[in-house]
Amino acid sequence: EMASSTAYVHHLTLKGGHSDTVNVLVFSPDGDNIASGGDDKVVIIWEVNTSDILYRIPADDRVDSILWHPVQPETIIIGCAGGSITQIHGFSPVSDPLIRVNRRLT
Asked: Distance between CA atoms of 18 and 74, rounded to whole angstroms?
């Protein structure tokens, strides 16, 4: 018997999001969302229960890592292939521009 977990999904198909290879897939702290990033320079926030795209976030370069902020809601930290690290909070809908904060190049 498998232990119960809020981040366990029996089966989930994510379609129509990325146009290239997906490099990273990370559950939100509450297990309700998934963030994915890839070679198409896009981060997508998905709703776990429906597989719907909630947000599409453009990145500076190929997305190699994503970290959900453990305390601040709707906040992710994105690491890109070019060395940039970007913190994004207060996600906006797919068609709206995004607010970027705490951006620095390493």
From this structure: 21
